[in-house]
Specification:
mainly alpha
Length: about 80
């Protein structure tokens, strides 16, 4: 946070200004009364969750995999070790 403040201060001295909200307010939960819209919104939310977490999970998985197994695309439990 301190590093970011230092960078932002330096940029603002050069004439580039960034606006950041200084007031924190809690978000209020909104009820979706339409059942179809509720399903669509929840489906999209879970899809976005999967899209954002899948790369991180694959990086963690590949960090335990053998290089040859990654190249060939043949991942199995035998190729996942702590030695890699």
């Amino acid at each position: 946070t301190i590093l970011m403040l230092a960078v932002m201060s330096r940029l603002e001295k050069g004439g580039t200004y960034f606006s950041v909200s200084k007031v924190s307010s809690a978000l209020q939960k909104q009820q979706i009364t339409n059942p179809v819209a509720n399903v669509v919104v929840h489906t999209l939310a879970y899809l976005l969750f999967a899209v954002y977490t899948l790369p991180v999970l694959l990086i963690v998985l590949y960090s335990f995999a053998d290089g040859a197994a990654i190249q060939t695309g043949q991942l199995s439990l035998n190729s996942l070790t702590l030695e890699n």
